[in-house]
């Protein structure tokens, strides 16, 4: 079955100033997951969570190609949660919820999530810049990843090991400067995304940092 593309025509220039817009890595993540959709379908997933939902492009792409599930989008940026809600409504993904929250401050999702999706802030910056950007709760929180681009990622790996169900999987973007992260590469090489890849991980993947 031919994959379907999400309708993103409603996203304006003004939106792109306050919410991480559809970018090359966005499409790399979305396409990599859709290419693996038969595997995801075999899991019969009930809950699909996107951490850092942005404009909702990835979650909408999953929804229109997978079908019925509960789609949960979380973002520290309130404008992202609002725009992502509109994106899924326009794409007729019916069962969804969007929450503006710091995912690391706790949600009751232990062992409940079948698919986690994340394009984390992976750009290497100082630890101070990472903390400042997260505190702003705006578009800057989408970029700064702290030392080696790993500060958000390392917390995400811990989170996934808790939230994923026994059969669950996570698809996440990372880049070569983040160092080794346990997982299976499921993305293709793509112009404009040199050094960037999509990793597929399970609940039982290694979470210890390996340099």
CATH topology category name: Rossmann fold
Distance between the termini: 40 Å
Percent of sequence in beta strands = 15-25%
Task: Work out the helix count.
Answer: 7
Order of helices and strands: HHHEHEHEEHHEEE
Q: How many structural domains?
A: 1
Gyration radius, to the nearest Å?
Answer: 16 Å
Topology:
Layout: H1 13-18, H2 24-35, H3 37-42, E1 47-51, H4 57-66, E2 70-75, H5 78-90, E3 96-100, E4 113-118, H6 127-136, H7 151-163, E5 164-175, E6 184-185, E7 196-202
Parallel strand pairs: 1-2, 1-4, 2-3, 4-5
Antiparallel strand pairs: 5-7, 6-7
Helix pairs in contact: 2-4
Organism: Blepharisma stoltei
Protein name: Methyltransferase small domain-containing protein
Keywords: Methyltransferase, S-adenosyl-L-methionine, Transferase
Description:
The protein has seven helices and seven strands, in the order αααβαβαββααβββ. The protein has helices at 13-18, 24-35, 37-42, 57-66, 78-90, 127-136, 151-163, and strands spanning 47-51, 70-75, 96-100, 113-118, 164-175, 184-185, 196-202. It has a seven-stranded mixed sheet. β2 (70-75), α5 and β3 form a beta-alpha-beta unit. α2 runs parallel beside α4 (57-66). The longest helix is centred in the middle third of the chain and has 13 residues, at 78-90. Residues 48-131 form the Methyltransferase small domain. Belongs to the eukaryotic/archaeal PrmC-related family.
Identify the notable features of this structure and list them briefly:
Rossmann fold; 7-stranded mixed beta sheet; Small_mtfrase_dom; Methyltransferase small domain-containing protein; about 210 residues; 7 helices; alpha/beta; methyltransferase
